[in-house]
Amino acid sequence: MSNPHHPTHPHPPSPEVVANAHVTAEQYETMYAASIADPEGFWREEGKRVDWIKPYSQVKDVDFTLGNVKINWFADGTLNASANCIDRHLATRGDQTAIIWEPDSPEDDAKHITYTELHGHTCRMANILKGMGVTKGDRVVIYMPMIPEAAYAMLACARIGAIHSIVFAGFSPDALAARVTGSDARVVITADEAPRGGKATPLKTNADKALAKCDTDTKMLVVRRTGGDIAMTEGRDHWFHELEAKADADCPPEEMAAEDPLFILYTSGSTGQPKGVVHSTGGYLVYAAMTHEVTFDYHDGDIYWCTADVGWVTGHSYIVYGPLANGATTLMFEGVPTYPDASRFWQVCEKHKVNQFYTAPTAIRALMGKGNEFVSKCDLSSLKVLGTVGEPINPEAWNWYNDVVGGGRCPIVDTWWQTETGGHLLTPLPGAHATKPGAAMKPFFGINPVILEPTTGEVIEGNPAEGVLCIADSWPGQMRSVWGDHERFEKTYFSDYKGYYFSGDGCRRDADGDYWITGRVDDVINVSGHRMGTAEVESALVAHPKVAEAAVVGYPHEVKGQGIYCYVTLMGGQEPSEELRKELRQWVREEIGPIASPDLIQWAPGLPKTRSGKIMRRILRKIAENDYGALGDTSTLAEPAVVDDLIENRMNRA
Ligand code: 6R9
């Protein structure tokens, strides 16, 4: 029996929630069993959620064998994602709000964009892109604030068959340049400035710096957001509002094959520079639409809000594609949770009568620390379902979210998924499962999770089980390749554990068979829900003229989940100083972006290495965690004295 006072005891949904739910416990069991027993049959039906120009006859054509990895869904069908997100709703809900836009400052007016208006805006943007020479299959980079034009830009690309690649507005000119070059983009769509939390990021100026580093033939389309002073390059840069006034408001959607790429999204891995995750048109859209409806128990007329940025996969699947494919009203928020104060999220929920609210544990923890009165002064009675994503949520934050924000009425869906997976893979469903604080609970339909013993790769059967999380078979939303490097795709996800998709996460299945994510098992760290490869930060650091060597690890951080801990060895003759720490921090911000800003920098006279010269990260992680009593086997160290120095001068003594 579970103790009801224990912080992780299960929370069953109320009878009212169950009565209105799309999926109940019995339905989940039946549908899940069917989806695993006969994936072809299951997805043949579910594929009909979207409108096809030419219906598919093939459903699934998949091989996870290393050297021969192929993933095809609905391959002979054709469709257009933009038509599915807009045109097919026009007859029935043309006057319904598609997008509610809430600006950074509560003093400014919100906008309500209907499906009919969304059609006009998207078509005009699509025609402008065509006029700038973009054709089917071309790449377009989007570097934008959270404004409706970002959604128009995505849908405009989809409409003409261009592949969009969104770069989060917090990334630096260097990071932007790498992505423009990596995809040989025809156009960068940006804005003058991006206001967030009362401060403006100079996007256009950043984009100018980025293009100066690219030898691609790339034009720029600039949306006016703040009216801030910017420079325009004659012949290369165009104002969106000027072209929009002349653009045709109709643009027929291009007929795309199901497997044509819809977008590329760069994400961090354990080695090397970020890779371009490629998603398909047909399978991705089916999966985003289905998970959006089922996981959030979305019903017609509901107001749905996901607080992510369109620069991350969560914004792609659960602000734009999933909700709009379902004809939902989706809220786009330009600001941050704590501006002008810690009540902002809850005021927006009250103002727009939000029914489903989806955010990240880091935001929940930050707001929890500000006190309950910021929540309790708002009317949150419209809320029905709460969601969390991006990193493991600690039971304390889960319970606060449940009790203080949800008033104990709203099921919490803790959705585990990745840029690579396109949509939710593990999550409870609001009307079907008793949730447990901190557990991602159950596989979504069609998902066959397996837990493997990390070293032998053997499947651990039965409960409880703990090991690395793999997925045994494909699902329609799965990434198809790494842009320009299919071999890297195979190597990253299919080589460690043969025949399986390897997630990079550790996982535990409890005695009841429910799943708990334990965090990354590779050199990826999760800072405020943002994925960061430690190798990326290291290569930024060693690019500094005073740095000889660097090793970067994660350590537990109360608000961010993980913080960035850097061990830095200086070039001979360089003296450590507080100024140099500041300089390095600033350097990394410029090389990658503010999200990669080091939290702690420790001067390391040397790094612990094996005799073959491999850095022993396990030891560095332990020291950063302030857990240096349990360093494990250090017998292979080349110079044991290095470790004593690192322990003595450790930065995290919490
Ligand atoms: C959607 C997204 C993916 C990594 C993933 C895992 C972590 C995401 C989680 C979670 C525990 C959850 N993660 N959701 N960990 N519980 N509900 O975040 O994609 O940016 O690619 O990050 O985030 O470690 O592997 P992405």
From TrEMBL:
<feature type="binding site">
    <location>
        <position position="314"/>
    </location>
    <ligand>
        <name>CoA</name>
    </ligand>
</feature>
<feature type="domain" description="AMP-binding enzyme C-terminal">
    <location>
        <begin position="536"/>
        <end position="614"/>
    </location>
</feature>
<dbReference type="GO" id="GO:0016208">
    <property type="term" value="F:AMP binding"/>
</dbReference>
<dbReference type="InterPro" id="IPR025110">
    <property type="entry name" value="AMP-bd_C"/>
</dbReference>
<dbReference type="Pfam" id="PF16177">
    <property type="entry name" value="ACAS_N"/>
</dbReference>
<keyword id="KW-0436">Ligase</keyword>
<dbReference type="InterPro" id="IPR032387">
    <property type="entry name" value="ACAS_N"/>
</dbReference>
<feature type="domain" description="Acetyl-coenzyme A synthetase N-terminal">
    <location>
        <begin position="28"/>
        <end position="85"/>
    </location>
</feature>
<feature type="modified residue" description="N6-acetyllysine">
    <location>
        <position position="614"/>
    </location>
</feature>
<feature type="binding site">
    <location>
        <position position="505"/>
    </location>
    <ligand>
        <name>ATP</name>
    </ligand>
</feature>
<feature type="binding site">
    <location>
        <begin position="414"/>
        <end position="419"/>
    </location>
    <ligand>
        <name>ATP</name>
    </ligand>
</feature>
<dbReference type="GO" id="GO:0005829">
    <property type="term" value="C:cytosol"/>
</dbReference>
<protein>
    <recommendedName>
        <fullName>Acetyl-coenzyme A synthetase</fullName>
        <ecNumber>6.2.1.1</ecNumber>
    </recommendedName>
</protein>
<feature type="binding site">
    <location>
        <begin position="196"/>
        <end position="199"/>
    </location>
    <ligand>
        <name>CoA</name>
    </ligand>
</feature>
<feature type="binding site">
    <location>
        <begin position="390"/>
        <end position="392"/>
    </location>
    <ligand>
        <name>ATP</name>
    </ligand>
</feature>
<feature type="domain" description="AMP-dependent synthetase/ligase">
    <location>
        <begin position="87"/>
        <end position="474"/>
    </location>
</feature>
<dbReference type="InterPro" id="IPR011904">
    <property type="entry name" value="Ac_CoA_lig"/>
</dbReference>
<keyword id="KW-0460">Magnesium</keyword>
<dbReference type="Pfam" id="PF00501">
    <property type="entry name" value="AMP-binding"/>
</dbReference>
<dbReference type="GO" id="GO:0019427">
    <property type="term" value="P:acetyl-CoA biosynthetic process from acetate"/>
</dbReference>
<feature type="binding site">
    <location>
        <position position="531"/>
    </location>
    <ligand>
        <name>ATP</name>
    </ligand>
</feature>
<feature type="binding site">
    <location>
        <position position="544"/>
    </location>
    <ligand>
        <name>Mg(2+)</name>
    </ligand>
</feature>
<keyword id="KW-0007">Acetylation</keyword>
<keyword id="KW-0067">ATP-binding</keyword>
<feature type="binding site">
    <location>
        <position position="547"/>
    </location>
    <ligand>
        <name>Mg(2+)</name>
    </ligand>
</feature>
<dbReference type="InterPro" id="IPR042099">
    <property type="entry name" value="ANL_N_sf"/>
</dbReference>
<dbReference type="Pfam" id="PF13193">
    <property type="entry name" value="AMP-binding_C"/>
</dbReference>
<dbReference type="InterPro" id="IPR045851">
    <property type="entry name" value="AMP-bd_C_sf"/>
</dbReference>
<comment type="similarity">
    <text>Belongs to the ATP-dependent AMP-binding enzyme family.</text>
</comment>
<feature type="binding site">
    <location>
        <position position="520"/>
    </location>
    <ligand>
        <name>ATP</name>
    </ligand>
</feature>
<feature type="binding site">
    <location>
        <position position="542"/>
    </location>
    <ligand>
        <name>Mg(2+)</name>
    </ligand>
</feature>
<dbReference type="InterPro" id="IPR020845">
    <property type="entry name" value="AMP-binding_CS"/>
</dbReference>
<keyword id="KW-0479">Metal-binding</keyword>
<feature type="binding site">
    <location>
        <position position="528"/>
    </location>
    <ligand>
        <name>CoA</name>
    </ligand>
</feature>
<feature type="binding site">
    <location>
        <position position="589"/>
    </location>
    <ligand>
        <name>CoA</name>
    </ligand>
</feature>
<comment type="function">
    <text>Catalyzes the conversion of acetate into acetyl-CoA (AcCoA), an essential intermediate at the junction of anabolic and catabolic pathways. AcsA undergoes a two-step reaction. In the first half reaction, AcsA combines acetate with ATP to form acetyl-adenylate (AcAMP) intermediate. In the second half reaction, it can then transfer the acetyl group from AcAMP to the sulfhydryl group of CoA, forming the product AcCoA.</text>
</comment>
<dbReference type="GO" id="GO:0046872">
    <property type="term" value="F:metal ion binding"/>
</dbReference>
<dbReference type="GO" id="GO:0005524">
    <property type="term" value="F:ATP binding"/>
</dbReference>
<keyword id="KW-0547">Nucleotide-binding</keyword>
<dbReference type="GO" id="GO:0003987">
    <property type="term" value="F:acetate-CoA ligase activity"/>
</dbReference>
<dbReference type="InterPro" id="IPR000873">
    <property type="entry name" value="AMP-dep_synth/lig_dom"/>
</dbReference>
